[in-house]
Amino acid sequence: MPEPRTAEPQLLARLTVTPGTDPETWIAEHTEELRELVDRHGAVLVRGLPLDDRDRAVAAVRRVIGAGMAEREGFAPRDPYGPGVYSSSHWPADQPMCMHHELSYAAETPRLLAFACVTPPSSGGVTALADSRAVLADLPAELVARFERHGWLLTRHYNPFVGIGWEDAFGVKDRAEVERYCADHGATAHWDDEGGLRTRQIRPAVVPHPVTGERCWFNQIAFLNEWTMAPDIREFLTSEFGPEGLPFNTFYGDGSPLDRATVDLINEVYELHTVREPWQAGDLMLLDNFRTAHSREPYQGRREIVVGMGDPLRH
Questions:
Q1: 74, CA 20 to 30 Å: which among 18, 108, 136, 218?
Q2: Is pLDDT of 5 > 70?
Q3: How confident is the model at residue 241, as a pLDDT?
Q4: pLDDT tens per residue, range 189-208
Q5: Could you give the C-alpha distances from 8 to 5, 54, 69, 134, 273, in angstroms and in order?
């Protein structure tokens, strides 16, 4: 594993509130402070709010994110709880969701994310964080330069057998609407003979922060790559649907494949800069989606996290 070259400041600011505090009132009174802490640190954790009930958690997240942003092009199903507010992704509990920036493959991305913990798992399940600026600084310069020249390519295969169907991902049932959406958002769409949708889109791997202009490693190159999948799952999907039938895969922007060593290296650099805080019932966490990557680690037991997406930006 490479050695970190950067000394990073505290990524996750922490606040503790008095037990019994009304969450909506407290959030309304402290919204400006919370936003300032997110801007300063990249993420903030509020502990002690009574959010161990879904309705309260949803209301708190709505209060934080404002109007909210509807998710399009999701890679796993979610339960909707209102504009911009959802369950966490339905992803196997024993499989990690590696470091990524929410919807970094889409043309429109939330700048603000909010998470509220209704039920913490009995073990694991941490939503870990990493500073995208520090990750960028510790990746090999030649690798970064290649991605800056070409961007990164995401291919997707929406089918009724694996992952999420295109109707749920795009929130429509009309093929023509999907085609219009893709054309408007820089993706190509192709329908296969079985009714599945295949899309391709090239996105920048490094973007300027929308406020500070700092360069951020902003993508899902490693998470959505075939080499990050569990070997048995990758082998099964490849044998069933062929190498081009995986629900998602990533490449250099010129179409060249990524090898396992490169994907492993990216994940190792993320690990160097990972901050972990186990969930407690009622926790509220906000993060700057451009500056801060997040993951979800494997867990045991029931886990319920409410997720909100706000402050959409087109990039």
A1: 136
A2: no
A3: 76
A4: 999 887 889 999 999 999 99
A5: 10, 35, 30, 7, 8
H or E, element range at 118:
strand 108-119
Domain contains 105: yes
Q: Which residue matches tokens 């490094």?
A: 206
Count: domains in the chain: 2
| Residue 246 tokens, joined | 């995986």
Count of beta carbons in the 10 Å neighbourhood of residue 251 = 19
CATH number at residue 75: 3.60.130.10
Tell me the one-letter amino acid at 239. S
CA dist., res. 226 & res. 294, Å (int): 19
Rounded to whole angstroms, what are the CA distances from 239 to 73, 114, 217, 234? 25, 38, 33, 8
Q: Please classify residue 66 by burial: count the beta carbons closer than 10 Å to its beta carbon, then call 0-12 exposed, 13-18 middle and 19+ buried.
A: middle
First vs last C-alpha separation in the chain:
33
Say yes or no: 198 and 260 in one domain. Answer: yes
Q: Which domain holds residue 189?
A: 134-268
100 and 75 share one domain: yes
Specify whether 264 is located in the same domain as 144.
Answer: yes
